[in-house]
Amino acid sequence: MKKLMVCAVCVMAILAGCKNQGQTTADNNKDSVEVSVDEEIVEPNDTTPLPMFLMGSDTKYALMLYWTEIEEPKKDPDYAEYYDGWHKKWELQEMFRRNRAHYTNLIVDDKYVKIKYVDEVLKDPDGNTPSIGERHGRDEIPSLSARFDVGKNEGCIIVTDSYKDSRKLLPIKWFEYEWGKEKPLPADVVKQLEQKYGMKTERSVLLCKIGEDYTYGVMQFKGAYKDAPKDPYDEDRQSALALDVLIKGDKVIVNEQIGYYEDSYGATWNADDDGTYVGCDPIVAFEGPEGLEICYRRDAPESTTTGMFFEREDILEELEYECYHNMIDEEIPIWKKDFATMQKMYQADERSDRDVKLTKWSHCYIDYDNEWIWLTNEDENNGAFFIRKDGKFTLVAVETPNLQPSSCRKNEYSYLKLAGPAGGPSWQQEIHAFKNGEPIWTLFVLEVEGEINGCALNDKDISVEECRKYLDQVPDGEPINAWFQEIESKE
Predict the structure, then answer these.
(1) Residue 210, CA distances (Å) to 121, 144, 253, 285, 401 in order
(2) Which ranges of 40-82 does DSSP label H, i.e. alpha helix?
(3) Residue 356's CB: how many other CB atoms inside 10 A?
(4) d(Cα 211, Cα 341) in Å, to the nearest integer?
(5) pLDDT tens for residues 94-127?
(6) Residues whose CB falls within 8 Å of the CB of residue 401, separated by 6 or more in sequence, listed in order
(7) In whole angstroms, how far apart are CA 123 and each of 130, 132, 225, 450?
(8) 436 Rama sector, left if φ>0, alpha if ψ -120 to 50, beta otherwise
(9) I need a labelling partner for 341 at 20 to 30 A (CA). Which of 22, 30, 89, 401 fits?
(10) Rounded to whole angstroms, how far apart are CA atoms 344 and 315?
(11) pLDDT at residue 24 above 80?
C-alpha cells in the first residue's frame, strides 16, 4: 500500500537537517493556493487547506502542535535519504501556517462551532524553540504551536471555510460493546481479506458506522507477513500486518499497517501495545469531491498519530500528519526568570549568607503533593528549599554548613529536617512538617550537651515536655536524592 507521508522522523535527524532560513508569515486574506500536497490526494485545482488537529492546550488556549522546525529543511549529504520525507512534512505544516488565521471552524458533536486563531508559540520563556512533536501532560510546558480560542468547546478537528463549504460532514456512530466482547468484521469480509493476503486472522473489530453507507473496522493477522517490503535497515527483520478496513456495500478497501514480528514475542506496531494493533479511530468524516475523507487518531500507549484517509477507487490512501510522542510524569521547567526570583528571595532572607551564590538546582521529593526545588552553591553546603505552586514560589528553608538537610515520612506526614552544630556543645534542629501538601508546623530545637535547652513551635516558645512529644513523632532523616544541574546552563 502506497504511503504518502513518512512517519516518525526522529527529532535529532530533523534538527540536523534544518538550517535557519527565517520565518514565514501569513501574507493575504484568502486561503493560499500554494498548497503543496500530493496531487493524488486532492482534486485538480484544489485550493482547500486540509483539516488540522488540536492536540494540546496551555492554561488558556487549544494548540495545533507543530511537528517540525519552522525553517525549511535543506539537503544535507549526511541525511540525504531522509530529505524528501522531511520536506513533505514541512510542506504540510507550512500549508497550515500560511492559512492558520482562516481555520475558524471547530467540529463538535457533528456540528461546526466558530473559533478564533490567536497567535503562534515560537519561543519558550527562555527564548529557545519549544518542544516539537510532543504531547505534554502539563499545560505549563510550552510547545511549538498555533493557539486557538475555542471557548468552552471540546473538539479536535479544525477546518477553513473553504473546506467546510466544499464537503459534507458525515456523522460517525460508534458501536458499543462490553469489554472483551467486540463484534468482528463480517465473515465474508474476513474471508475475502484472508484469501487476498494468504494469512489467518488474529482479531477483527467492527468499530463504527460512517454516514449511511460506510462501516469501518480493523483487522490483525497471525504470524509474519511474508510479502511485506524489506526493511531497508534490517533485511532479515520479519513484519506483521494489520489493516484499517472500510466497507461500502460489497466494496472493501483497506490501508495496510506494517509492524514488526518476532517468533518469540509476536507482533508489535507501537511501543507497549502488547501485540495488539491500535487502530486508527475515525474522529471526523466528510463526503469529499472524490469520495470519503476521514480524519483519524491512533492513540497508542506512548504515542498519538494523526492523519487522514482518502477513499480512492480500490484503495484507502493514508496521509499521515505526525506521530506525536506522549510525554508523562514530566516536571514543569524552571525558567531563567524563576531562578532570578528564587535567588532574590534567598538573598533577602535573614538566614542566608549573602556572599554565597547559588549555582545548582534540582527537583526533589520531600513529599509527593508539592513541587520542591532545591538550589545550592558550588560546594553543596549552602542552599535553599522552595515550593512552587500556581506559578508562585515559597522559600521553605535555608541550608547552611551548620544546618544540613534530610527528609523522612511517617503515616500521613512528610518532614524536611535541617540539623547541625550551633557552637560548643550545642546542636540545633529545624523541622518542617507537611500533610497532604500543606505546611502543618515548624519546630526549632536547641540542645546543649544532649539536653533540650529551648524550643519554639511556629515561632512560639513551648515547654520541653511538649517539644519532646513533637520530636518523638519524627523518624530519623534520610539523605535527600537530588540530581543537580548548573543554573548557568540556563543563562
Answers:
(1) 35, 33, 14, 7, 69
(2) none
(3) 18
(4) 56
(5) 999 999 999 999 999 999 999 999 999 999 999 9
(6) 381, 382, 420
(7) 6, 11, 45, 56
(8) left
(9) 401
(10) 64
(11) no
Of residues 230 and 341, more confidently modeled:
341
Please count the CA atoms within 13 angstroms of the CA of 443 that sit on its side-chain side. 27
In terms of Cα–Cα distance, which of 260, 414, 444 is closest to 351?
Answer: 444
Instruction: Kindly tell me if the per-residue pLDDT of 46 is higher than 60.
Output: no
246: exposed, middle or buried (C-beta count within 10 Å: 0-12, 13-18, 19+)?
buried
Taking Cα atoms as reference points, which of 111, 101, 118 lies closest to residue 27? 101
Task: Give dist(CA 402, CA 421) in Å, integer.
Answer: 6
Three cell numbers at 351? Answer: 538566614
- Give burial (CB, 10 Å; 0-12/13-18/19+) of 232: exposed
Burial letters 31-56, b for 16+ CB under 10 A, else e: bbeebebeeebbeeebebbbbbbbbb
Distance of alpha carbon 450 from alpha carbon 81, whole angstroms: 73
Q: Tell me the β-bridge partners of 438.
A: 435
Model pLDDT, residue 342:
97
Please answer whether residues 431 and 419 qualify as being in contact, where contact means their C-beta atoms are separated by less than 8 angstroms: no
Distance CA 205, CA 163 (A): 31
Phi, psi of 303 (to 5 degrees): -150, 160
Give 280-310 pLDDT, tens digit per residue: 999 999 999 999 999 999 999 899 999 999 9
Sign of CA dihedral 272, 278, 280, 282: negative
Grid cell digits, residue 83: 530529505
Query: From residue 216, how far is each of 235, 295, 315, 360 by CA, in Å?
Result: 33, 13, 14, 55
Residues in Cβ contact with 407 at an 8 Å cutoff, skipping those fewer than 6 apart: 364, 366, 414, 415, 416, 417, 477, 478, 480
- 370 and 389 in contact (C-beta within 8 Å)? yes
pLDDT at residue number 489: 63
3-state class of 189 per DSSP? helix
β-strands 315-326, 134-135: how paired? parallel
DSSP symbol at 297: E
Number of H helices, E strands in the chain: 6, 31
Look-up: residue for cell 490483525? 220
